[in-house]
Amino acid sequence: MRHGRDDPGRRTQPVPVRLAGAEFTYATARAAGVSKDRLCGPAYVRLHRGVYVARELEMDDDRRVRALLLALPADAALYGATAAAWMELPAELPADLQVIVPPGTVPRRPGVEPHEGLGPDDAMVYRGVRVTTPERTWLDLSRTLDDTELVVVGDAMVRRGLTTCNRLVETADAARRRRGIVRVRSVARMVRARVDSPQESRLRLVLVAGGLREPTVNPDLSDGRGGWIGRPDLAYEDAKLAIQYEGDVHRVNARRWRADIGRDEVLRDHGWEVVRVTGADLARPQQLCARIRRLLDHRGRRLG
Question: Between 124 and 64, whose confidence is greater?
Fold first, then answer.
């Protein structure tokens, strides 16, 4: 006898193991022996047309993205800021998930910002999901990000090993028929390796924008005998001037704070001047650049 939707006996049937830990399609549910009536019952939640999840499973941003992609064509890929956030880069996941498909039919679904024009070599699989490649993602972000934030993302990509400075430059140089591509080619040449945080990127760019020469990023410094003495965030090595960015973690973590003091003392013992910069300093770029310029002039006279 067929059970009705409100039959408590049906309600107690356990969710199959293969459906319990992730979102799934209607076809997957049927293959696991779950009927259409059971999918409409209290044990499951319909997320999109043909896409379900066990009610007991807690939803988060990752599951939201994976569920949406199950409802889209198989050749769809995450795009723009959505792709960057999925790659755990310094980008915020948009409210409407950005996806891109090859030229043709663009998917229209609630919660989706659709794009078309995905080339055959423009996508890869990252954390089990199709996304635009780092190079394509960076180019797409140039439509919405200013120069500083575009460099921040590029620095993070290179630091994470997702791409290289050279590949970003080559990709920008090869791009055609893109609005603002001349600007993007210039910005690509500002991306650097070895950058440890977005604030380090912003600090470097503030100094350059203020008319200072570009400091070296995270150089490994040594003493006169070749022994390693430290790796500051930024450095003017000829002037023996090190610049350290101090985020909140440095202030509130006692162990980190003590380590920072010890780190700076080692550099000072070897004749280096150490400047500690905070977010408040970045908010006053003219004063910060004037301070660094005075120190460089002073160090130049002293060491010259």
Answer: 124
- Cross-sheet strand order for the sheet of 273-277: 216-217, 234-236, 241-245, 273-277
Query: Quick one: 89 and 181 in the same domain?
Result: yes
Domain-embedded: residue 3:
no
Owning domain of residue 50: 8-58
Query: What's the rounded Cα separation, in Å, for the pair 147 and 144?
Result: 10
Number of domains within the chain = 3
The C-alpha atoms of residue 268 and residue 90 are separated, in whole angstroms, by 33
DSSP state of 116: E
Cα-based distances in Å from 138 to 53, 124, 173, 299: 33, 14, 13, 38
CA distances from 187 to 11, 79, 232 (A): 58, 20, 24
The CA angle 158-81-133, to the nearest 5 degrees, is: 50
Strand pairing report for 77-78 and 51-54: unpaired
* pLDDT (mean) for 246-267: 73
Q: Does residue 166 share a domain with residue 120? A: yes
Q: Does 34 share its domain with 145?
A: no
Cβ-contact 119, 112 below 8 angstroms: no
pLDDT mean over 120-127: 96
pTM higher than 0.70: yes
Average pLDDT value for residue range 236-263:
78
In a domain, 137, yes or no: yes
